[in-house]
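Residues determine shape. We examine one folded chain.
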Amino acid sequence: MKKRNLVLGLVAFMIGGMTLTSCDPVSKKADAILTINNGSDKAKEINVNDIFNKYITKSTGITSYYDALCEVVIRASIEVTDEIKNTAEQNVNQQKDKASSNAETNKTKTTYDEELDKILKDNGVENLNELKDKFIYDQLKSKARDKYFKDNEANDYKLLREYINEKLPYHVSHMLINVSASDTDGGYKGQITEQEAINLTGAIKRLSRGDTFGSVAQSLSGDSSSASNYGEGDIVTLDSSYVNEFKLGIYAFDKIYNSKAKDARAENINMSTYAADYYASKTNMDKISYEQIMKMSELVSLTKDSNGIKVNDGDENYYPRNVYFNNLFNSHRIALITAPKTYVEANNLVGFKAADADNGLGNVLGTDEYALCTTTGKPILVVRSGSGDSYQGIFFMVIEKSAITETSDTLAAYYDYKKSNDEYNSSIGTMYVNFNEKSNLEYNKRKEKIKSAVESYDKLIDNSIFKYYFNLVPGRFTFNDEIKYDIPEYGTITLEDAINKYIDNTEFYYDYTNKNTMNQTWTEFVEKLEVIEDNESRRISLDCANAFADASTSSLYAVGGACRVKTIK
């Protein structure tokens, strides 16, 4: 096997991922196909002969050739220092020790040589020299990556802006009120305990009185990690692991209902046509009546009528708290809690706000209608979630910073992770890092969280790094444009064009796959909402819940009455 830094495989872009055959367009010739000039007296040439024996007889696709080209570019761009060599040597010795230890553990089953062969095979090499060379290259790749990010950090938030535009990060505070109602209840027969009903209505009462969202979350949220941080959780993006009711509900609210001016990034949520048509059919956003919630709070403990008799043979579906839960909270659609202006003023509900230019509720709230908001005036979104025992309940969510209603400039400034701690301390609450006043240690953790997100979001980062180093020093790398290939549907193209087409194709395929995945996610989510909607007619009427307390005399519960039903299926 040739030394890794002399190996370069390049083939023309093959439609549909075709592999090499006996008719492969690479021919054995002495021409230099790539020239590398690193400032030495003599430029180094990579010839077809250097790669012919390794690749021409193998059914290897263009990926292998592109990977080899990347290696040549990285090796020519990053210096191999003594430190790198020493580290690689240490890594080799560690692998030798591992082989010895494995052989000793297995006793007579395997020998040292057999264990070492396994290690070499796992690393794709044939001997210890090649293993050391691989460890050297691994370090060069790491240094190249670090230098790429460092060089681009100073470029007007270039990578941060790319992250913002591609991943659409939302800074969200939330709390979860756990409920025991199963996610398979169909949206019409969920059952919650008395304490769960008290927690749910109690949280809403406290917010309506003007308690801060963070204080309520800290004392009542079932999500312990965010509760300890006053409701603040991780940044939400389209590929975050949050349940769809939470994640897609936020994006749907901002795209469909928020009346603030929207950035073009709103199209990047990749909402399917099916989902878009569904939301277009909704003339109004879901609203939950605060007055009805207060009625629910009065009846959470009621399980018997005024004569002490369990109505309908003790069917818990008819307990008022369950009837209210299903009618008010069990749609799985994003909603606001609202109340008329007169009711808000009469009851001094300082937690309710009218629509204004900042909260974006101008096309959601009616005249003289108020919505439950935080003490800072941000709308509190509510949604029923179902995801096993951990996230089974009602989410209350506050968008602290929107990915599609804010400009790129404001978002880049908000997520800035390059300032000094003194700078963050001078303007507490204006950026993500200093959202809450923290110690320097916490500031550094939050800066690192953003930095890590920026550096890891691009799944094709190797393409970006390759293009960066290939073009970093003019004239360092030069393709021989005399070598050309006849490519079906593309005609005759140069070697450089073939590589560029490969890069373009991998990026297109990745984007296409992501878009299709999100389209499917949106469609499946909306299909679930539609099933729940179809079951709305099966919900027990709120009239039955309100009549429950006086069931002995209520005509609704009399024999033949509308609420005289034995079971719900």
